[in-house]
UniProtKB/TrEMBL annotation:
InterPro entries: Kynureninase, PyrdxlP-dep_Trfase, PyrdxlP-dep_Trfase_major, PyrdxlP-dep_Trfase_small
Membrane-spanning residues: none
Organism: Rivibacter subsaxonicus
Subunit structure: Homodimer.
PANTHER family: KYNURENINASE (PTHR14084:SF0)
The name this protein goes by in its record: Kynureninase
Cofactor: pyridoxal 5'-phosphate
Modified residues (N6-(pyridoxal phosphate)lysine): 230
EC primary class: hydrolase
Keywords of the record: Hydrolase, Pyridine nucleotide biosynthesis, Pyridoxal phosphate
Gene: kynU
Catalytic activity: L-kynurenine + H2O = anthranilate + L-alanine + H(+); 3-hydroxy-L-kynurenine + H2O = 3-hydroxyanthranilate + L-alanine + H(+)
GO biological process, one term: L-kynurenine catabolic process
């Protein structure tokens, strides 16, 4: 056997990150393997929200914009996130949603290319990129009269940036970790390839920020956006974040020129004057409750810094995903599961994705009924339906990975997933 349950417990006993689990309000009796979709509630969040609601809003009222620092939240929290993605203070802000932020930076990148390289006609991405990214790209492409070109696999990206077509690429838009397969792209190499043909890069960090080391500046990326409610544990619908490389930040207005992105919003002038740097990528009034919860979530990730930081989180993530994948292949053989996440550590994010031709949704529902929470993602022409399991090293234990595989084996061997209640689709899968 790859590892016994007692050996998994022994790993937990000597895990240097184990104390961080106490920072979360984990529901008893559940093995939560869906932090790549919605992070667990930090223990500090409920009290912090009560403080904001009852004191800052309830007592201090509008004075809290100054006295409680509400107006500074986008930049203050942005500086904390910056430490997780390899950029400097004052370069990143927390704001809006990933979709809205993607629209801002993709529009700005296309405007820059229209000014600098007017013959460019392509936005390049992966067909398996998260759908909202592709929808936003379609919208921006229509605005600029461009074409969205989709490649079928990461291996096809270099070819899309090479030859005569490379000279037509305006922007390469990618997600660092694929949401459906867990494939981790080589940001440095792909950014260099894009720059080699004069293209700009836009990176979506939704499945990487907070889970593994991200080095935007070292990789010379141009723009990035990311999600606040997955590995950053900011709560459902938490504000997202946006970054523009300092060499680009002052060059163009982003398209949503709202009052918070004004150089002096409280002058209330009738003409827009963009704030310097990343401040111009703000738009409307910050969502104060969401920002407060997001800051608590980001603090749970930063709490790992004295224990080895993101490098330690990454090492544990790889150990957890290796254990789970090995046990599935050993204990669930013959049940039609195919590992689609890469086995090579350098190519894998913090999730394990299993494909199955039949019953993937129902199997996930049967696991949830047993207290093992993963999720389902529909397949496509390249990959069948997916059972997806996310491993957040801040709070996931090795014994939970071991027990989850035993539950998966039992669901498959018993055939309980075939029961009618597990085959009725919920609105959210």
């Amino acid at each position: 056997m790859t590892m016994s349950r007692d050996q998994a417990l022994a790993l937990d006993a000597k895990d240097p990150l184990a104390p961080l689990r106490a920072a979360f309000s984990l529901p008893p009796g559940r093995i939560y393997l869906d932090g790549n979709s919605l992070g667990v509630l930090p223990a500090a969040t409920s009290q912090r929200l009560r403080e904001v609601v009852e004191h800052e809003w309830g007592t201090e009222l509008i004075e809290s914009w100054n006295s409680a620092g509400w107006i500074e939240q986008p930049g203050r929290i942005g500086d904390k996130i910056a430490r997780l993605v390899g950029v400097g203070p004052g370069e990143l802000v927390a704001a809006d949603s990933t979709s809205v932020n993607l629209y801002k930076v993709l529009h700005a990148a296309c405007a820059m290319q229209r000014a600098d390289r007017p013959g460019r006609r392509l936005i390049v991405s992966e067909r398996s990129n998260f759908p909202t990214d592709l929808y936003i790209a379609q919208s921006v492409a229509r605005e600029f009269g461009l074409e969205l070109k989709l490649v079928d696999a990461p291996e096809a990206l270099p070819a899309a940036l090479g030859g005569e077509s490379g000279a037509e690429v305006a922007v390469l838009m990618l997600t660092q970790v694929n949401y459906r397969t867990g494939v981790l792209l080589d940001m440095a190499a792909l950014t260099a390839a894009a720059h080699g043909v004069g293209a700009l890069t836009v990176w979506d960090l939704a499945h990487s920020a907070g889970a593994l080391p991200v080095a935007l500046k070292d990789c010379d990326a141009d723009f990035a956006i990311g999600c606040g409610y997955k590995y950053l544990n900011g709560g459902p619908g938490a504000p997202a974040f946006v970054w523009a490389h300092p060499r680009h930040a002052d060059r163009f207005w982003q398209p949503l020129s709202g009052w918070m992105g004004h150089a002096a919003p409280f002058e209330f002038t009738s003409d827009y004057r963009p704030a310097p740097g990343i401040g111009r990528y703000l738009c409307g009034t910050p969502a104060i409750l969401g920002m407060a919860a997001l800051e608590c979530g980001v603090d749970t990730v930063l709490a790992a810094e004295p224990l080895g930081g993101l490098a330690a989180l990454r090492a544990k993530s790889l150990a957890l995903t290796d254990l789970f994948a090995n046990l599935v292949e050993e204990r669930c053989t013959g049940h039609g599961l195919t590992l689609v996440s890469p086995r090579e550590p350098a190519r894998r994010g913090s999730q394990v994705c299993l494909a199955r031709d039949e019953g993937a949704y129902a199997i996930v529902q049967a696991l949830i009924a047993r207290g093992v929470v993963g999720d389902f993602r529909a397949g496509d022409a390249q990959v069948p339906d997916i059972l997806r399991f996310g491993f957040t090293p801040l709070y996931t234990r090795f014994v939970e990975a071991w027990d989850a595989v035993e539950h998966l084996r039992a669901v498959l061997e018993s055939g309980e997933w075939k029961r009618a209640e597990f085959n009725r689709r919920n609105a959210v899968t």
